[in-house]
Amino acid sequence: MDEQIKPVAWAVGDKWSKTFGYGNEPVALYSQQSIDALRAEVEFHKRDASALRSQMDVLRDGLASERERAESMRAELAEQCRLHAIGMERELALIGRADRAEAEAAAKQARIDELMLEYCPDEMTPEQIENWKRHQVPAIDAARKGE
User: What is the pTM of this model?
Assistant: First the structure.
């Protein structure tokens, strides 16, 4: 047997045994230096795994926080969209009312112009006559619009 490597221990589970094998011959032998190096490496990996677990916990917490923030932003955006839609509906309703009021005013002005032209054409201004002329359509076109 080599004098430089002395049998020290053999790893069996979590325990260390001085001899292991058949009879008096050990199956595998380790020097104290090899055992110390392996223990140091195991400790290094334990610390590394612990650090990685800590980093994972921090990342998990950060991810949960970002999910909450994203959900909050989504809810805020949904509320803003809802309010914007309500505002747009109101604006469209106002535009519709304004269009109807404009059409009513134009119809009333046309009726006034028609009555003035029939009963007092001398009192009409040139602008009123021009306005009346602009709004005249052939009877056939008027009938088609009604269909």
Answer: 0.44
Q: What is the DSSP letter of 5?
A: S
Cβ atoms of residues 29 and 7 within 8 Å? yes
| Alpha-carbon radius of gyration of the chain | 48
Domain boundaries, the chain: 31-138
Task: Give the DSSP H or E segment for 75.
Answer: helix 32-119
The dihedrals phi and psi of 9, each to the nearest 5 degrees, come to -160, 160
The pLDDT value given to residue 147:
53
Q: Report how far residue 99's alpha carbon sits from residue 90's, in angstroms, rounded to the nearest whole number.
A: 14
Q: How confident is the model at residue 134 (pLDDT cuts 50, 70, 90)?
A: confident
CB 5 within 8 A of CB 31: yes
